[in-house]
Amino acid sequence: MKSILSLLILSIAFSCTPIEEKAAEVTETITEAVTELENPFIHHVYFYLNNPDSAEDRAELVEGLNKLAKVETIQKHYIGFPAATDREVIVKDYSISWMCLFKNMEEEEMYQVDPIHLKFVEDYSHLWSTVKIYDSVQ
After folding, report:
1. Is residue 60 domain-shared with residue 72, that is, in the same domain?
2. Which residues, including other chains, have CB under 8 Å from residue 62's CB and lie 6 or more apart?
3. In this structure, are 25 and 56 located in the same domain?
4. What's the domain count of the chain?
5. Which residue numbers delimit the Stress-response A/B barrel domain (predicted)?
6. pLDDT per residue over 45-70, tens digit each?
7. pLDDT tens string 1-55
8. CB neighbourhood size of 19 (10 A)
9. Distances from the Cα of 129 to the Cαs of 46, 118, 126, in angstroms?
């Protein structure tokens, strides 16, 4: 995983628009966090909003994700939006992505039942039609 993240950092570093510079900064932060952990668990969620063109719905979900970030087992988190990249292999049909890093799988499992997480689902699930989740370990 470290080598994959390193390659990602290098590829971003060679094409530096303001968005890509921010992506490089985020990638570096995540790489540092992963390196510090023994068995990191990455939880990446893609939200597909019911009303993808609604700035209000997007802002409301971001507000909820910022509340969700207060779960104690989350080591790092990042809220993102589809980048303005244009290559055939890139998926950008989602509205908002949420990536968070845990020390290990056990802490991610604690997050799943944390009252803050359960309240987030209860309060904000009306905003999305679909959620796709990609979990990965080293």
Report:
1. yes
2. 79, 96
3. no
4. 2
5. 41-136
6. 999 999 999 999 999 999 999 999 99
7. 444 444 444 444 444 456 666 666 666 665 665 556 778 999 999 999 999 999 9
8. 13
9. 11, 18, 8
